Amino acid sequence: MNAPAIAQPLTLSATGPLTGTVTVPGDKSISHRALMLGALAVGETVITGLLEGEDVLATAAAMRAMGADIERRETSWHVHGVGVGGLLQPRVALDMGNSGTSTRLLMGLVASHPITATFIGDASLSGRPMGRVIDPLSLMGASFTASPGGRLPLTMRGLCPAVPLRYTLPVASAQVKSAVLLAGLNTPGETSVVEPIATRDHSERMLAGFGATLRIETAPEGRVITLIGEPELRPQVITVPGDPSSAAFPLVAALIVPGSSVTIANVGMNPTRAGLIGVLQAMGADISLGQQRLVGGEPVADLHVRHSPLTGIEVPPDIAPSMIDEFPILFVAAAFAQGRTVMRGLEELRVKESDRIAVMAEGLRACGVTVEELPDGLIVTGNGGEAVAGGATVAAKLDHRIAMSFAVLGLNARAPVTVDDARPIATSFPGFVAMMKSLGAH
Ligand code: S3P
Questions:
Q1: Which of 80, 334, 383, 393 is most buried, with most CB under 10 Å away?
Q2: How far apart are CA 62 and CA 119, in angstroms?
Q3: CA-CA distance, 292 to 132, in Å (whole number)?
Q4: Whole-angstrom Cα distance, residue 266 to residue 243?
Q5: 325 an active-site residue?
Q6: What is the distance between the alpha carbons of residues 78 and 69, in angstroms, rounded to a whole number?
Q7: Residue tagged active-site, from 325, 355, 399, 420
Q8: Is 255 helix (H, G, I), strand (E, B) or coil?
Q9: Bridge-partner residues for 411, per DSSP?
């Protein structure tokens, strides 16, 4: 998007402990949803703490292209919505950049409007599967012309009125769940999603906050979320907490750099997102939660973390959805643990911004870490906290979390670890390098 045209290599190093207090940018998942629901409410929604990363800006641009009025005034964002059912035909293709969340959730929104929209994205996004949203949205009446394999670029034609649906998720995906629920907004009757394994629940929380009626039940087949269609959404004042997925990088950095003591303030601790903290604590990490509070209906805390000796564990596969974006940085933490860390049940990592199992395995090996790649995960044999060899340039593959993970690995390496291109970091964590420098990294 606005990124410079030339690759920007990044090498971080530490000559002493990391210390200090930092904040991380707003939660990406919540930021997307705040803009989308604000754009469907009648009146002015005010958002503070919005993540101003490229992914969220892609959502803002798409909502503007479909009629919403969105502007940034000083530190807050002001959204004037069009009302449920009021989205307009966009005149240009919707450029989703690198953002799977923008794409899949917006496909849901468009599906129940009389709109034809074309979605385009970068090379990473154009390789990711969209069949998982095309399937349920087709059942609701939308039609699609997609690139081979159900990929972008694709054109969809929504149907109004759409057909309500009860849909059981075939993969544990909050994006698919949200796409169906958002399609259900402009659909008469009840739209239900059954999730056999619970995924992040920001859509449910925020839909209820905007005044939609939702029923959430626990059935033998899983968690059932039912949305009553055609609600009137009321504008909200939203404070977006810091993104736990971004906080994971300074957190693990402090764990692996000897002598470090770091506080990350104002981090979202929604239980459907906070799996990493418990896993690291089970490995021996000294992490404590201070100032636990509710901000805008989401639990928030300040995280205090100190350098800690870590021990390898078997990570229970059922915890994966609550930390799905944190595995790349957990692989890095595992490289400094004593013994083996076994992480399985992670097939979904192969269809993120990159194949995160293969890309991390290759980069870790290049840096001297012992790993065994499995079809559904990775086994990392750690070195008990010694510096890794390093001395490699690793490919970020247009994946922000891969880039930040290897930048953090380099903080405790005998020879520099260089990330070939740090530009993707701007999709989710503008200011990452400045924040790491403020803690003492070079
Ligand atoms: C997200 C859901 C997850 C996550 C992504 C954000 C969301 O994707 O990896 O970064 O905001 O709903 P999946 O639904 O594909 O698991």
A1: 334
A2: 10
A3: 36
A4: 9
A5: yes
A6: 8
A7: 325
A8: helix
A9: none
| Domains in the chain with CATH codes | 10-26+241-439 (3.65.10.10), 28-228 (3.65.10.10)
The per-residue pLDDT for range 144-160, each reduced to its tens digit, is 999 999 999 999 999 99
Which residue is listed with tokens 């992670």? 346
Contact 156, 137 (CB under 8 A): yes
Per DSSP, the three-state class of 365 is helix
Q: Report cis status (omega within 30 of 0) of the bond before 235.
A: no
SS3 55: helix
Q: What is the pTM of this model?
A: 0.98
Euclidean distance between CA atoms 358 and 374, whole angstroms: 9
- Shortest-distance atom of ligand 1 to CA 324: 9
Q: Which amino acid is at 401?
A: R
Q: How far is CA 83 from CA 105, 228, 324, in A?
A: 17, 16, 33
Q: Tokens 């890095």: give the residue.
A: 332
Give nearest CA residue, ligand 1 atom 15. Answer: 173
pLDDT at position 1: 47
Q: What is the pLDDT of residues 34-69, one digit of tens each?
A: 999 999 999 999 999 999 999 999 999 999 999 999
